[in-house]
Amino acid sequence: MADGLRLAVRALVYAVVGGTALVAIATVVSVLGPVVALDLYTPPVAAWWTVFTAVVVQGVPFLLLGTVVSAAIGAFVPDRVLTRLLPRNQALAVPVAGAAGVVLPGCECASVPVAGSLMRRGVAPAAALAFLLSAPAINPVVLVATSIAFPGQPAMVAARLAASLAAAVVMGWLWARFGREEWLRLSKGRPASGPSHGRHAFLAGLRHDFLHAGGFLVVGAGAAATFDIAVPRSVLDVFTGSAWLSVLLLAVLAVVLCVCSEADAFVAASLSGFSPTARLAFMVVGPMVDLKLIALQAGTFGRAFAVRFASVTWVVAVASSVLVGWWLL
Questions:
Q1: Is the pLDDT score of 80 beyond 70?
Q2: Whole-number Å distance between alpha carbons of 136 and 144
C-alpha cells in the first residue's frame, strides 16, 4: 500500500511539473515572442501567438492523461490480458475496440500514445486504430458537452455518436484489409535500457512519452495558428450558401483549427450559418484528423503512416457524417 501511494504521488508530481513546465514555456514564449521580434510585432503576429498558446494549453491536460495511461499499460498490464480482452478475429476485434473508446474521457492528444502503447503490447493495429479514432469522439464527456452545446437536439448527439463510431470501425476494417506493416513504425514507449515492468518502467515511460508527444503537439499548434491568420474570413463566407461546399469547408476547418474534442461542439453550435450536417462533419472530422493529431501520429507511428491514414480517415469521416446527417438530421 505504501509503495503504491508513493508511486501515485511521484506520478502526480511528474505530471503536474511536466504539464506546468510546458504551459509555462508556451506562455512565456507567447508573451516574449512579439517583444523579441519587434520588427514583426503586428496584430496578425499577436493573434498567431494567442492561437498557438490556446491550442497548446488546451491539449496539455489530455496529453498528460494519455501518457499516464500509456505508461501504466506498458508497465503494469501483462501482454496476455490485452490479447484476451479482444476477439482473435480482427473483424470482430475492431468494433469491440471502437466501442471501448467510450471509457476514455480525453481528446485526441490522449488517444495517440494510448494506441501506440496498445500496439506495443500486442494488440492488433486495426483494433488499436479503431480505439484511437473513437475514444476522443464518443466518450461520455464529449457526448455530454454536445448535448449542452445543442440543447433540445438529442438527434445531434445521436448523430455524432453514430457517425464517429461508424468512421472508426470502417477505418479499422480498412487497415485490417489493406494496411501494411512497413507503413507503421512504432516509436519506443520507454528507453531501451532499464526495467520493462514496475514503477521504474512506469515513470521512465511517462517521461519519455510526454516529452516525445509534447513536441509534436507544439508543431501542430503552430500549423493551426498559421492557418488561422492566413485565411481571410471573407473567403469562408463564400461557402455558406452551398450545402455540399459548407460540409467540405467545415471538414477542412476541423483539420486546421485543432479544436479539442471536448470543446468543438460549442464551436460547431456557434456556426449557425451552416447546415446541421456541416456542423456534424466538423465534430466528427476534428477528433480524428487535425494538424496536431497528424503531427502526433507522425511522431508515434511514422510519417508514411500519418499521411496515408489521415487522408483516408478524412474521406471516411466526411462520408459517414453526410450519410448519418441525411438519416438523422
A1: no
A2: 13
